[in-house]
Design brief:
The structure is a single chain. By secondary structure, this protein is α/β, with parallel strands linked by helices. 37% of the residues lie in helices and 24% in strands. Strands 5-4-1-8-9-10-11-12-13 form a 9-stranded mixed beta sheet, sandwiched between helices. Helix 2 links the parallel strand 4 and strand 5. 50% of the residues are buried.
Length: 316
């Protein structure tokens, strides 16, 4: 069945540890808990949309191993369309080792594995999924996969005049020619700096980079800030949208929720400003619970938080 929300990107088996020790100490550190979960930016965005009742298709790669079951089973249970997910026997499913300290700031060690291993048949699935998408559908992408898959998706989506909303990871892999094809991009501060080739050390730097990206051909730039807010840049104007204060439990997957919410808001006809508000609302809710996919809100929760975010944004 044709989808209105396509998500091309990474699919991971996540192994998450809650820790109380300083990760910079080195040596053997105690972990309070250990959980096996599904993750990956592409998978997270697709599940977020599916949970909100948006018909979503995931496009990605997994290995021919038991880790693929860990990565895909929670998605399969939601009814998410996995017809764009292909299997390779040449590489294992991507693995993410995630350490979450008491302040919720995660540290991730990622082995991309199958995410970077695409062949001709899997690349054909990219073309087919985009060709079969509903008219007016959006394509969300990240750069944690094969550059060839990204390029083919950008070409196919551009031919269909499909709006493309990109996450900013990995920033070093985002090229100037990519930016000109994007409708929106949502990097964090570090990724934005990597894309622009500028080291960011202040709020002024962040605003300058957001403006630069908006001037590079991207219509909507949302630079995700460490405090949960974002900088929205459109046509040279930059506006800060703040996150309401919440207890931060776990930041894993919050950025993916942001990007998915922005894409959904644009799909549903909201303005760039309202889309950024929904992005901040989604990430704010995501950091309030443990895990990534498990912490994602339903439609009512997202709408309620979006109103709360909007109340804190000065009127124009």
């Amino acid at each position: 069945m044709p989808s209105s929300f396509l998500s091309l990107g990474s699919i991971n088996a996540d192994f998450q540890f809650e820790v109380s020790a300083d990760l910079s100490e080195g040596g053997t550190l105690p972990a309070k808990t250990f959980l096996q979960r599904a993750g990956g930016k592409g998978a997270n965005r697709a599940l977020f949309a599916q949970k909100l009742g948006i018909g979503a298709t995931l496009i990605g790669r997994v290995g021919d191993d038991h880790f693929a079951g860990q990565a895909l089973q929670p998605l399969r249970q939601t009814g998410l369309d996995l017809s764009g997910v292909s299997v390779t026997a040449e590489s294992p499913t991507a693995i993410a080792m995630i350490a979450v300290p008491e302040n919720g700031d995660k540290t991730i060690l990622l082995a991309s594995n199958a995410n970077r291993d695409w062949d001709d048949s899997s690349l054909d699935l990219v073309r087919q999924a985009i060709k079969q998408a509903e008219a007016g559908a959006v394509l969300t992408i990240d750069f944690e996969i094969s550059p060839e898959a990204v390029e083919i998706a950008l070409q196919a989506a551009t031919q269909r005049q499909m709006r493309i909303i990109a996450d900013g990871s990995f920033g070093k892999d985002v090229k100037p020619e990519h930016l000109r094809r994007l409708h929106a991009i949502a990097p964090n501060v570090q990724e934005a700096g990597a894309i622009a080739g500028i080291e960011i050390s202040s709020d002024t730097d962040s605003e300058r980079v957001a403006r630069m990206l908006a001037e590079s051909g991207v219509e909507i730039v949302c630079v995700k800030l460490s405090d949960g807010g974002c900088l929205l840049a459109t046509a040279g104007a930059v506006e800060r949208i703040n996150s309401p204060p919440v207890e931060v439990v776990d930041k894993t997957g919050a950025g993916d929720a942001f990007t998915a919410a922005v894409a959904i808001a644009l799909l549903e006809g909201h303005s760039p400003r309202d889309a950024a508000i929904y992005g901040v609302a989604a990430s704010t809710l995501a950091v309030s619970g443990k895990g990534s996919q498990e912490a994602y809100p339903n439609r009512s929760e997202l709408d309620q938080m979006a109103r709360r975010v909007a109340d804190g944004v000065p009127a124009r």
